[in-house]
Amino acid sequence: MWVWLLLGTLVLLLGLFVYWAFFITEGAYLGPRIVAWTYDLTARRYERIKRFNPSDDAWLLAGPMLQALDEVDCPLVLDVATGTGRMPRTLLKRPLFRGTVIGLDLSYKMLQQANDKLCDRAGRYTLIWRDAQHLPFPDQTFDAVSCVEALEFMPSPRRVLNEMARVLRPGGVFLVTNRVNWERKLMPGKAFTNARLRAMLQETGLVQIEFRPWQVYYDLIWACKAGCPSRLGRGTRGRAEILQCPHCQSLSLIEAPNSLHCLSCRRAYPVKNDICAMTS
Questions:
Q1: Are residues 73 and 7 located together in one domain of the fold?
Q2: What is the value of pTM for the model shown?
Q3: DSSP letters along 176-221, please?
Q4: N or C, which terminus of the chain has less Cβ within 10 Å?
């Protein structure tokens, strides 16, 4: 009898672990490739599952972002963990936004979905297949950076915050979300109290940090990078001018048919349907 009780307990514990590891934390403690794999599996039906409200995104995401960038001509925006291109779409649909958006994600199939949904905005966006822990951009590249509903699924949220702040220009706009529902307690080291997250953002050089209620699961956190802002936006540069080689950190990338080539280390990074693969 005790054997069956023990087996039943083990099965229950295994079931709870699987539920925690794949449904609550979406593979966050199992490594970035597992996280990307889980999103690859659901890419085609991801937006049906999430039930995003475009009107809410336009009002609560694009609206404040445009207001913060009001004095910047042709802003260049980076969206980390862009998924199906939620942030790029809501920005590019606004007539007053004249800039360019770079979307980065480690799930290739999510980027394919983003490309399909953004195809009518060709020339105003680029999608990068890459881990967010090592952003392939020079310091102070972007006028704004964002990461929506994704920070807690990163291998190292702190490193991602540091990287986002690094590539943001002084005076630039910073947006991230923080998990606030009860599930946050099940994600130690991934989701943070508001006080802890504020301290982490301050350590990266961010100021004017503001927490705003947003959803049952998330708060929006807006901030800017310390320093003197510039009116000159950076959205008119091509991707070869924006990106740096992940292998040698060189800025000498050139466009070639269906690829980007590094003149320093001779590496080639394939480009297909506006998705640039920079995973090596």
A1: no
A2: 0.92
A3: EEEE-SGGGGGSTTTS--HHHHHHHHHHTTEEEEEEEE-SSSEEEE
A4: N
